[in-house]
Design brief:
Layout (H helix, E strand, L loop, with lengths): L10 H17 L3 H8 L3 H9 L6 H10 L5 H4 L7 H12 L2 H11 L1 H8 L1 E6 L6 H12 L3 E3 H9 L3 H27 L2 E5 L8 H10 L1 E6 L2 H10 L12 H16 L4 E4 L5 H15 L8
Parallel strand pairs: 1-3, 1-4, 2-3, 4-5
Helix pairs in contact: 2-4, 9-15, 10-11, 11-12
Length: 294
């Protein structure tokens, strides 16, 4: 093993010296000014840029901050990030989650597509028509159809109302992610619909988007409410005159999450058959499914 003599500057120290010099030169900042901004003496800075002596992490962080850089930019091995790369990283960090998702998809499309296989999931608020459209789409493509809530009920052995009452919201979310993993394991080609609140769980929703091509099924609040009532469920309205306002608020809160889906189909004022065709058109356009099943 080669041992570097103590008097010989290490590769890290020399790289650090070179990058500090380059950063100060790029900023057009005299060493005296950098000293004043960072609180590090001119003599210490001179030694740093010459590759002489060892600077503490705290002092190096001051120098980096004064040059509007991160300490990692001085220490990372290989070619340091360009100004454009740093700017893109800053923009990404400040971007909306939907935009971040699209950027990730653009940067690694093959990886994402491979993970999602031939799986399509319909997400959206209750009453959007996910179950109806999911069944119709699966039939047209000759693929299996799965409702995640049904998978949970089968795995736990009790109806959804009892699951919520016995295990609470946290317990249900854990079961939801477990059921999702089982669907991913069992199906490489499937159409699935999930409960409207799944998007509230960051881990489960990320897991879903990583392994399914997601389509947001949307509608107006009035249509959401009407469809739920037509299904025979009067709970949203019964004894609750503010139900519509609550539904609008819920939709507004979840919309940024639903917008992270890869595509959207609006079912407002659309007949069932037309909406199914809309979903099929989106799947064909984005090539979520290569061809109908056998």
């Amino acid at each position: 093993m080669k041992v570097t003599p103590i008097h010989e500057p290490s590769e890290l120290i020399m790289r650090l010296a070179e990058r500090v010099r380059a950063a100060r030169s790029k900023a057009g900042m005299p060493r005296r000014e950098l000293s004043e901004l960072s609180g590090v003496s001119p003599r210490y800075l001179a030694q740093l840029e010459a590759g002489e002596g060892n600077i503490s992490v705290l002092l190096l962080e001051r120098v980096a901050s004064a040059l509007e850089l991160r300490i990692e930019d001085f220490l990372v091995s290989g070619t340091p990030f360009s100004e454009d790369t740093q700017r893109v990283a800053q923009l990404y960090q400040g971007a909306h989650s939907e935009v971040q998702g699209k950027i990730r998809n653009l940067l690694a499309p093959q990886i994402q597509t491979a993970q999602r296989a031939q799986r399509v999931c319909l997400i959206g608020l209750r009453g959007a028509g996910k179950s109806t459209l999911g069944k119709g789409t699966a039939k047209a493509l000759r693929l299996p159809y799965v409702e995640l809530n049904n998978v949970i009920e089968e795995q736990v052995g009790m109806p959804m109302s009892e699951i919520h009452g016995l295990y609470g919201q946290d317990g249900f979310r854990a079961m939801e992610n477990e059921a999702l993993n089982s669907v991913i394991k069992d199906h490489s080609r499937v159409i699935m619909a999930v409960g409207g609140g799944l998007v509230n769980d960051t881990e489960t929703y990320a897991n879903l988007r990583a392994h399914f091509h997601t389509i947001w099924i949307s509608a107006t609040p009035a249509e959401h409410m009407q469809r739920v009532r037509e299904q025979g469920d009067l709970r949203p309205m019964e004894g609750n005159p503010a139900a519509m306002d609550q539904l609008k608020s819920l939709l507004q809160t979840r919309t940024p999450l639903y917008e992270q889906a890869l595509a959207q189909v609006n079912t407002s004022n659309r007949p069932e058959k037309s909406s199914i065709n809309d979903v099929l058109a989106v799947i064909a356009k984005h090539r979520f499914i290569d061809k109908p099943g056998p």
